[in-house]
Specification:
The chain is mainly alpha-helical. Helices cover 32% and strands 7% of the residues. The strands form 2 sheets. It has a 3-stranded antiparallel β-sheet. A two-stranded antiparallel ribbon has the order 4-5. The termini are close together.
Amino acid sequence: MIYRHFNAPARAFSQFSHELIRHPRLSSDAVRLLTWQLSLPRDARESLSRTAERARIGACAFARAKRQLKEEGFVHERRVQGAGGLWVTQQLVSSTPLTTDQAVKLLARGPVASSQVTPSPRNPAVGALTVGEPTPPSTGGHPKKDRGENTSHLPPDPAEAPEVADPDDESPRLEEARALIGALPLLSATLRSIPPGMRDELARLAARWLDTGHSSTDVHEHILRGLPGTATPVHRPGGLVRYLLRDVPPRSLPPQSSPSSGNRLSPRLEGARECAGDHTQPMLFRPLGGETHCPECASLS
């Protein structure tokens, strides 16, 4: 049984809908980034990257959160050319999803003339807040690249711009790799303090091993072999696992089991899956059917 106690603040507070806070496709970093932006004064010009820095959201987690917000229509961006031919990036943050047309109309109200608009498409709604300041170049020529917002110097030529693949589309075995990484805390106490924000990055590295033909057991055994002795403390286990998975060796030996065996995890973890609920550390359980939450989380819903 859970009890909640809440005192409504008398000042300095913001109102957000439950749908935004409990959005099923936004990570906790994405929700924090969005609510932080919407809580700023209306005339504030704090960029998303600055908000992420103040909220202590890492670079990888920020990129993932920003992508989610753009996909769901809460964030739109455009590159425009202002006075003197300077290219700047404008950002639009809204409390509800906006379509491309709605974002264009709101961004057009800004001080810079509309040009080269490339907002992200999504669902219709109303209400918005614009953030971000134009950044002029230090000298003549193209403007300097804003690393925090990953803004290019000029709108890319479609014929010359390279295709950038979504990290989630890199491997068809990414879900298996996520389960593999989620099981690491059960293999060794040293791996229990891996930051949750690193799981996707480590899963993409593990997926490369699986794509090469290695099994989940191979990856687990390789990580265990790379751990120091029990007397040696590991202050950054996530960085150690990332180092161990960085280089993928070729699989010269045939698999020990037939491809049809279906073993996706280490034998003692077979049939387990990670709970989709809110846990400090990854929580594995064995579902009886198609459950996605452990019995404890299921009893709270």
